[in-house]
Every structure is written in structure tokens, then in C-alpha cells.
């Protein structure tokens, strides 16, 4: 048994050394890609070498987060602007080199005001980055076949590299059937089961990762937050945000717990977390008592709340009770201006990547 | 805001009532299916209705687990025998009705002693249940094309309903490429990315779920362990066990945390868990101090350790320090005779289900 433990300890040291080299290599790679700082996924697959003494292992660096009186506000808007500017540069380079630009198609069904605003913002961002965009608008009472026909055309259109179905769809449409009709190569939302399966499974790499999940990781990396080994909690388990964020955090070797509405005593889990990503869509769900001093908080929740004093009669609020959190945590994203702008930036990035693959443009 | 909370509280009550009705319905369904007690997956998709007071919600029943001096030993062998006997009955009914039996093909590459034993046990179990089985044996130095050719033949063979590639494969073979070649309908190991993606995503249902993950849930259900709302920890994140088990526990509305070799202070997380499933493959990794009194422990670890006093010169040990755990937890699976036999029973069940689909036999 002693021999086994010694061998394991050696393997672990080798693993750590290999891992350090790999991280250095990945940093070099990510700087050279110019747009996104997140490393490629598969290279992050590190061997799980277990030791019996892992609980008392002091070889890992201490947590980045330390208790501060006033949190750093993570300026997602400014970070996203920088990324969008880099993407615009890459799109120009593609156009100058091969005479092509990336193309995004959006399908919007119905008259939901929030969906209309989201789509408007995405299209505007495409224009600014030089990405071609097309929107197919359908009335609330359209048929499934009408939507599927439009999807089929976009799948075949070689000038379109990304297809986005704005969710939620009206109840009478089969969301699963419609999303399945988007061809894997153009699934810029990362919501195709093959992309999700490949994100979940070690040793595999999805073509695309959910824009919000990718945006969250990018914010953590750009804010200098260490993810590996940290306790991360994801609140919410939606297919589009909570699930891929939890899977991606795990790919970055965080220890992930997923909280949902059936969780008993959620704050007993959240207040042990170094990183909290919340995407429940419930204003003020996360109170100060839910958070560990010094934690890093990413608030994906974006809920319109009536407010007559605001221009449009409402204001957007997140899941986190910001006033309670800001004096307690080490870093936090505001709502709006935190994760939201990153989601759009990652959509442009995913569309650019898809066009790069289609044209074999590096 | 008060109006919002009241509406949410009403929705929650409705959700709970609906949920109770659903559970009752599912129980009826599961009893009628005769073989597996786990409910169908998609029906388990419950709406996440969040409340601000969820931390103080006493409407949920108290935990099943209570502290006992001596744990119930979950007799996986006996439970699996019962399931295999039911499967044999169903196979006979299929043969009598339509003159067909389910067929399983196994691909085994190389001379690993443990893999040979596993395959031998699976084939023997097939024979006893009346399921046809075929094994393709390849030498250690076979080429990828040879394995892919065999897979292609099994994919086309209408008498084969399940294909199993015994892992691990020798290093020179591309595991991902080989597993991807198994057609989705015959993926009785539930390891195809589409099956994994559909297991992960709410509102979707995989054709097949990993045998071990399914076996673990079946053991919990048959042992009367409540899963919904409980804190569950999965130790290990392999594609074949840890990952699907964590996803399946979440489908059953547990609050799941995934521990791996990069987790800092793993026992600080495991000793808060009501349910611990451990699949690290490290003997005695989980000590008594890692476990909460009254927890339920499923030990998937199966590691051969040299022991001259045993018939074959070795004995199998799990991840859990059994002697320390047994006086502390409320229920535990032994190694061997716990989860292992369930994995084989679930393989037979998955093969039967696949044949049922192929022949539209209910």
C-alpha cells in the first residue's frame, strides 16, 4: 500500500508539473488568439491524480479572493467593448484577405418586448463588428413548419455561419424540435445536444459553448480570478445558462455545486463558495447572508421591475441584493452592464469562429 | 413586490401539488413496467419555482436518513438478481410473442485481466437472461480500422440491439473516434455525446443512460432513499460513471456537488452530504471523517489489491474505508456485491429496452 501511495504521489507531482507547463502554453496560445482569453477546452483536460492527503495539501496557491471592504465592480460593458473591437478587427482582416464576412441569422417569434430588445441589441452589435445579420420575424401564431422552413434555408445558406433562435418560443411550438433543426456547425448558442454532450464529457470539445457561460468564464479570467480548485456555485440549471456554466466551470477544474429551486438551505452551500454565478431570474434572491466575504459574484439574472421614475417605466435588476453584496464580496458584476454585454460579445465571437471554420480562415 | 412573492408562492404550491400527483403517477408507471423502478426521465422535469423563503421551507418531508449505530448494507447482488430475473421473464415474453430476443455485441481489445473478467460476467448474465451475445476479441496491437470494421458490422446487424466497447482501450486507439462509431440506437453504455447531452438538458430524454449511474439511482429508490432536495456528492467525474451519475441525480432534483482530484478540502463538502456516490477508484480515499452520520453511501470504486490469502491472489476494495463508514452512515453498498452487480443488470435492461424499441414491442 505504501508503494501505491508513493507511486501516486509521484504521479501527482508529475501531473502538477505537466499542468504548470500546460497552463503556460495555454496562456501563450490565448494571448496569440487576440480575441478570447479563455484557453481551448480539450487542452484543459488534466488527469485526476488522487491523493489521500488532498485535504491537507498546501502546495496549491492560496485563494485569490481576500476580504475587502468594497468590492471591485467587474465592468462587463467595458470588457465586452474591447472584445467587440478585437472581433471587428478580425472581421476586417477576413474581408480584406478572402472577401468574406461572418453571417448571423436570428429567428424571432412573437411580440415579447424583452426578446425584441435582445434581438435588436444583437443585430446592432453585428453591424458594428462588420458581421452580416438577417432576422426572420414570425407572428405569435405561426406554425412550426414555417419556422422549420426558415431554419432549413439558413442551414443551407453558405453566407450564414450562425443561427440563433431567440428563446422563449410561444408554448404551441416544440422548442426541442426547432432547436434540433439548427445544424450543429451553425449552433452559435451552444445549445445543440451534441455540443452540450461534448462540453460535459472529458476528452471531447464542443464546436460552440453557450455565449453566457463563455462570457462568465471570460470575465473571471480577465478579472484575474483563479478557478481551478475553487468552490463554485451555480444558481439555476437552465439549458442556456446554468447547465453550460456549471459544465464549463468544471472543465476549468472548479468544484461545482448546482443550486435549484428544490435545494434545501441554499445559502448554507452558497456561503462556502469562492465563486457564485447566479442565473435564477429572481430579483434579490441572493442576500448578503448567502455570500462568503471575499467571494466573486457574477449576476446573470436580468429581471425587469416596474419603476415609474425610469425612462421606459421599468429597470433591470439581478438575482443578487447588490447593496448587501457590494460591501462584502471581493468582486461583483453589476446589472445591467455586467454579464449581459459579454453574452453579446461571445455571440459575435462564436459567429466569427464558425465562419473561420467554414472558410478555413485562421 | 409583495404581489410578485404571493404569486410565486401560489405557483410553488401548485407546483408542489402537481409534483405530488406526478410522483404518484410515476410510481404507478414504474410498478407496471416490472423491471426498473426508476421513473421515466422527462416526466421528472419539474418547474423551478423559486421562493425567497426556500431556506426555511419546512413543507418538504424530513430526510429519510437518520443516525444509526450500524448501517444497512445495501445488497446490490440480491437486488440485481431480482432485476435480472424480471428481465429474463420479459425476454421470454418477447421470444414467445414475436420470436425475437435482444442481442448484445461486446468489443474487447487486449489482454487486461480485469476487462476479461468484466466481459465474461456480462456474457454470462446475458446467457442467463436469454439475451443473445457476441464478443469480438482483438489483440493489443490491432488497428483502429479493424475495430471500426467490427463496429460497422454490428451497427448494421439487425439482431444486435446493444454494442459495448469495453474500456479502457489500448493507448494507440482513439477512444473518442471508436465510441462515436457506435450508432446512437445501440449505445447501451449511454456514452454517446447525444445521449449525454440529452441526459444533461432539461426537457430532453436520452435513449440510454450509463449502466452504473442508472444502477446507483435504482439502488437508492429500492432502498427507500429520498433524492429530491437532498445534498448529493459525486466523487469522480469520469464520462462513464461520475458525470452521468451527477447528471442523473440532478434530474432527480438532488443538489449535486462534484468532487475531483483538484478539489480543495473535499471532506468539507462530502461531510455535508446526505448521499455520497464515490467512483474515484482509490482504495480508502473516503475516510469516516468524510461522511455525515446517517448519510447513504454508494461505493462504485472497485480496485484489485494484492492479497495472497485470496483465491486469485487479490481482493477487490472500494473507495470507502468500509470499517470506518459502517458504524456511522445509515446505508452503504459493500464492495464487491454492491453497485457492480447493478451495472450488469442495467446493461441487460438497456439492451432489452433497445430491442423493445427496435421491434416496437411493449
Word description of this protein:
The structure is a homodimer of 362-residue chains. With 362 residues, chain A is an alpha/beta fold. Chain A is 42% helix and 13% strand. Chain A has helices spanning 2-33, 76-98, 113-129, 144-156, 175-180, 193-200, 211-222, 242-251, 266-270, 322-326, 339-359; strands at residues 72-73, 103-109, 132-138, 162-165, 231-235, 255-259, 275-278, 296-299, 303-306, 314-317, 331-332. In chain A, strand 5 (231-235), helix 8 and strand 6 form a beta-alpha-beta unit. In chain A, helix 2 (76-98) runs parallel beside helix 11 (339-359), helix 7 crosses helix 8 (242-251) and helix 7 (211-222) crosses helix 11. The longest helix of chain A has 32 residues, at 2-33. Chain A is globular and about 50 Å long. Strand 6 (255-259) of chain A pairs antiparallel with strand 6 of chain B, so a sheet runs across the interface.
Please tell me the overall pLDDT of chain A.
87
**First and last CA, distance of chain A:** 51 Å
Continuous helix count of chain A? 11
What fold name stands as the CATH topology of the domain at 210-341 in chain A? Rossmann fold
Strand order of the largest sheet of chain A: 1-11-8-7-5-6
Q: How many distinct beta strands of chain A?
A: 11
Oligomer: homodimer
Indicate the overall shape of chain A: globular
**Helical content of chain A, roughly?**
40-55%
Largest interface: pair, residues per side? A-B, 63 and 60 residues
Biggest β-sheet of chain A: count, sense, barrel? 6 strands, parallel
CATH 2nd-level architecture of the domain at 210-341 in chain A: 3-Layer(aba) Sandwich
Cα-atom Rg of chain A, whole angstroms?
A: 21 Å
Class from secondary-structure proportions of chain A: alpha/beta
Strand content bin of chain A: 5-15%
